[in-house]
């Protein structure tokens, strides 16, 4: 065995396939991230996943991970010296419907510390899984009009012309509802990250 | 907080893999944007505690009777790249039945459903990162990617680990399957050694006499500051 072989290497990803509902989204619904008592501004988040021909992806799975309204992750490694909102786990998971939509109910996240302690703009972390996606893609959702967006270190890594692909906008018809479309490929392609 | 090590080249699938036709319209054409790992990436859902029912890790006991097929035990450990066990993490699986048919509305493969088999399970790893399922061996099944395309028998696995960056959805295969060289989903992984990490090992030691054969599948998730580790899991 050579030195190189001594270190373990993470095993490869494979596609979630078309039948993931059976194992991942059939049981406890995870469309609502916030318990009835959760603190903060309750919002609906209407997400659509779109393929390279502009069609909604009917068999994608979206996972969300976010901080609570005070910017605290419900996770033991969050070093901030305050307790997370007990009514807010921060994890959401839904399959898209036949038109590629999935609507979550959550609270608007607070600001969490970023690189060198500078606060990040409020954001939600996203993984997208699907048939045809061998390794899930990862992105973020920011909120239109938030003044903190201007100084967010991660958004600033994104060329100006593509930043809007990460920014949810308020729905003109539905109050408290934010919309964002994720374009997996081609025109208006969403920015995906590699960390 | 320690950050995660980079992903070795060739160890993960190519996102746009021409042999797997549906990758073409569902994966980015632009390069991913490299970003630093912040608290958002280094934390992740703590999900699954309190969810697990008594028969959730035994797919042969979830219905009135026993399913058709070859009963198997699938077990292993969940570790990070430093060889450290990942305890109390949710492991979710789903699979086709012995005839290669999923209990799913969109599966129209003309093979029989089994009234005694749902094909989904979940469990939490123990303090040493161990997990174990009882199931039946899934059958291979055809798909429409290319002429005469068949998936090697596999079980889908989903793991959370301790951070959003460790999230993994994959498939476990069975040793010696003649379909491996023809399967673009598996062949999308450039490095042969990496492909082999998805093939379970026949495990006579864990097999239970007069009852079930066993397969071992150790799952390594991304690690932080991995130090050289002497033994493979």
Structure description:
The complex is a heterodimer of chains A (195) and B (233). Helices cover 4% and strands 28% of the residues of chain A. Chain A is mainly β and 195 residues long. Chain A has a single domain, classed as Protocatechuate 3,4-Dioxygenase, subunit A. Chain A has an eight-stranded mixed β-sheet with strand order 3-2-5-6-7-8-1-4, with no helix packed on it. In chain A, strand 5 and strand 6 form a beta hairpin. The relative contact order of chain A is 0.21. Chain B has 233 residues and is mainly β. Chain B has a single domain, classed as Sandwich (Protocatechuate 3,4-Dioxygenase, subunit A). Chain B contains three helices and twelve strands; from the N terminus they run βαββββββββααβββ. In chain B, strands 2, 5, 10, 11 and 12 form a five-stranded mixed β-sheet that branches. Chain B has a four-stranded antiparallel β-sheet with strand order 4-3-8-9, with no helix packed on it. Chain B has a two-stranded antiparallel ribbon with strand order 6-7. In chain B, strand 6 and strand 7 form a beta hairpin. The two termini of chain B are 26 Å apart. The C terminus of chain B is likely disordered.
Number of domains in the coordinates of chain A?
1
CATH domain fold name of chain B: Protocatechuate 3,4-Dioxygenase, subunit A
Computed over alpha carbons, the radius of gyration of chain B is: 18 Å
CATH architecture of chain B: Sandwich
Return the CATH class of chain B: Mainly Beta
Which of globular, elongated, flat, extended, rod-shaped describes the shape of chain B? globular
Number of domains of chain B: 1
């Amino acid at each position: 065995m050579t030195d190189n072989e001594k270190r373990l290497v993470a095993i490869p990803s494979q596609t979630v396939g078309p039948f993931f509902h059976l194992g991942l989204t059939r049981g406890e619904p995870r469309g609502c991230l916030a318990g009835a008592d959760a603190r903060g501004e309750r919002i609906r988040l209407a997400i659509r996943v779109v393929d390279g021909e502009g069609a909604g992806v009917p068999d994608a799975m979206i996972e969300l991970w976010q901080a609570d309204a005070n910017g605290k992750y419900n996770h033991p490694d969050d070093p901030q010296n305050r307790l997370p909102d007990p009514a807010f786990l921060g994890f959401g998971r839904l399959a898209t419907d036949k038109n590629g939509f999935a609507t979550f109910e959550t609270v608007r996240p607070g600001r969490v510390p970023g690189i060198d302690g500078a606060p990040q703009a409020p954001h939600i972390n996203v993984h997208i899984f699907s048939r045809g996606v061998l390794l899930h893609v990862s992105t973020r959702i920011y909120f239109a009009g938030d003044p903190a967006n201007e100084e967010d270190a991660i958004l600033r890594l994104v060329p100006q012309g593509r930043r809007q692909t990460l920014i949810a906008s308020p729905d003109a018809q539905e109050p408290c509802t934010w919309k964002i479309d994720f374009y997996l490929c081609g025109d208006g392609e969403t920015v995906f990250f590699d960390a | 907080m320690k950050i995660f090590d980079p992903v070795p080249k060739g160890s993960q699938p190519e996102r746009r893999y021409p042999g797997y036709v549906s990758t073409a319209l569902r994966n980015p054409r632009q390069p991913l944007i490299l970003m630093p790992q912040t608290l958002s990436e280094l934390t992740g859902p703590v999900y699954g505690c309190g969810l697990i029912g008594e028969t959730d890790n035994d797919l042969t006991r979830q219905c009135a009777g026993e399913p058709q097929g070859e009963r198997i035990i699938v077990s292993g450990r969940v570790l990070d790249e430093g060889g450290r066990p990942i305890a109390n993490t949710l492991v979710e699986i789903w699979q086709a039945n012995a005839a290669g048919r999923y209990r799913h509305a969109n599966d129209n493969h003309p093979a029989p459903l089994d009234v005694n088999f749902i094909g989904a399970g979940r469990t939490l790893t123990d303090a040493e990162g161990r997990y174990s399922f009882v199931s039946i061996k899934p059958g291979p099944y055809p798909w429409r990617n290319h002429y005469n395309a068949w998936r090697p028998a596999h079980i889908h696995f989903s793991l959370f680990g301790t951070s959003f960056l460790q999230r993994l959805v994959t498939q476990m295969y069975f040793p010696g399957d003649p379909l491996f060289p023809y399967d673009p989903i598996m062949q999308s992984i450039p490095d042969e050694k990496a492909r082999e990490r998805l093939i379970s090992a026949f495990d006579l030691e864990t097999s239970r006499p007069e009852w079930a054969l066993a397969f071992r599948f150790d799952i390594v998730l991304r690690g932080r500051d991995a130090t050289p580790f002497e033994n493979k899991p």
